[in-house]
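ok so I'm stuck.
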Amino acid sequence: MTEERCTLKIDPEFRRLIFPHSREEYEALKQQILQHGCGGPVVVWYGYIIQGFEQYDICMEYNITFQIKNINFRVREEIISATCQKELSGRCLPENQRRYLIGKRYNADIIIGAHNAAGTDQFKERIRRDLFRGKKFYENNAGRIKERLAGEYHLNQCSIIRYSIYAQAIDYIASIKPEAADQILAGERKTSIEAVMSCYGKSEDEVVKLLTASRRNVIAKRPAFVKTEVAVGTTIKDMPAFDPDAEVNSLALTIPSWISSINRTRSAAKFPLLTSKGRNQLEQELYQLQKATQIMLNALKEVH
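replied:
not stuck anymore, here's the structure
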């Protein structure tokens, strides 16, 4: 651990994982640092801050030295998972931030599992990866991770999937309107989960329209306070929890992101330069997707 004053890098995704202090908390932290110096270290990974953002901001503004603690992680998903776990266990967070962190942790954990199975990390070349092995592990491990996180955070497994999609949508919104994503996570912008998820892959104008319309609907539908009584002997476990559409709704909300990824790849990829291995890999997966889609459509027709 070294003490110095140097310019560090900030990754917006890492910073979004740490919910900022309130104005009063920030002022208290600033006064403490001005009077006693920067107490705790700024935690860094390859020059990127992962903890201590506000300490760093204050120290840079007032020319105060601070300690740097370098952390060794193989891939950025390990940072995301560890940070989400720490934040969720140690702080009282706004509900939207909590949903976001649970979804981010799930998404990171299944990628970490795939890396472990393939024996790779972000610094190894793609040609050295065992893609098939990683894919099979990803599919098998995702269910176990979903079950584990559902138990840890007292949620049903469908909620874990919804939060996974929600987190991806928040990151997408942040890529085009960072201030809107911050406001949603802080609860300052009243927007439904469904509206946030529907923003994924849309243009900036469409995102603005969806968020604005959702905000109006939330305000319009906000009910007046009504005192209700719960029957004696009724517990939370007795409350109705089964939603027959939960699984298909999660799938329906995920599919637009697949379509967006396919369209984006089709526009950006240089197809004449593809290797036969890369082309065959994609063709195989697309055929599998086509087959699975047809099976699902047939299943839906049977119940009409």
